[in-house]
Design goal:
The protein is of the alpha+beta class. It has three helices and five strands; from the N terminus they run ββαβααββ. α1 crosses α2, α1 crosses α3 and α2 packs across α3. It starts with a strand and ends with a strand.
């Protein structure tokens, strides 16, 4: 049986989602790698970059997993939304 992880939501009033840990790890690595190499990125550009990187090897909706893992990384304070940006910009925390 596949291990799962509870992907948290940065809004404490919203419930997290159980997802396969192997898929979480792949998407998390792609998000972190993109932000390390490009600096802050818009939500859309980061999603497109993750999708381009994983398209050939990922089974499932890449953009759904991207959004879910991005929210989890925000909740865990690994990444953050840049305040007062439109479109929403995302960067590594710290």
């Amino acid at each position: 049986m596949e291990k799962t992880i509870l992907a948290l939501h940065p809004d404490p009033t919203k419930q997290g989602v159980q997802i396969e840990k192997s898929k979480y790890d792949v998407v998390r690595s792609a998000i972190i790698a993109m932000l390390k190499s490009n600096g802050s990125m818009s939500f859309t550009d980061l999603g497109n970059a993750v999708e381009d990187r994983l398209r050939k090897s990922f089974d499932g909706s890449i953009l759904w997993y991207y959004t879910t893992v991005k929210l989890d990384l925000e909740a865990r304070k690994e990444i953050r939304r840049v305040p007062k940006t439109s479109p929403q910009m995302i960067e590594l925390a710290g």
